[in-house]
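Is this the right way to post structure tokens for a design question? Let me know if I should format differently. Anyway, here goes:
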């Protein structure tokens, strides 16, 4: 039986809400350029789970650096504040569909892609809860 009972997917912050999105959570540290708060259609902005400014600037969305970025970002997610938000996102995903949003044009090499991979990993809850207790 799967631990993640609902769908966790990735989307762009600029995309319109579609049926089945569930809870829409922006995970970027910076507000999406050109998107007004009135037009923003998401439920939460969890900027604390975003990569550090230093990591984000080092990475620069260079596809050749994605594997290293992913490893470094996963390490940052173990910090207490980020781990708390990650735990919250997992809880949201357990109770319904979750769409993780980013403003990145290349969502497949973004921090949102790393988060979705973690949240869809059936082993995640046991590893995470064991590491934070």
């Amino acid at each position: 039986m799967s631990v993640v009972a609902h769908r966790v997917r990735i989307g762009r912050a600029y995309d319109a809400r579609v049926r089945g999105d569930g809870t829409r959570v922006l995970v970027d540290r910076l507000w999406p350029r050109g998107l007004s708060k009135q037009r923003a259609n998401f439920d939460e902005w969890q900027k604390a789970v975003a990569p550090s400014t230093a990591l984000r600037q080092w990475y620069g969305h260079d596809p050749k650096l994605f594997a290293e970025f992913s490893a470094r970002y996963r390490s940052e997610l173990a910090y207490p504040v980020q781990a708390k938000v990650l735990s919250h996102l997992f809880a949201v995903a357990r109770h319904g569909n979750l769409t993780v949003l980013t403003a990145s044009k290349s969502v497949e090499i973004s921090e949102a892609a790393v988060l979705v991979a973690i949240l869809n990993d059936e082993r995640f809850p046991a590893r995470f809860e064991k590491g934070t207790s």
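Format looks fine. Someone answered above. Worth noting: The two ends are 24 Å apart (CA to CA). Residues 129-133 have pLDDT under 50 and may be disordered.
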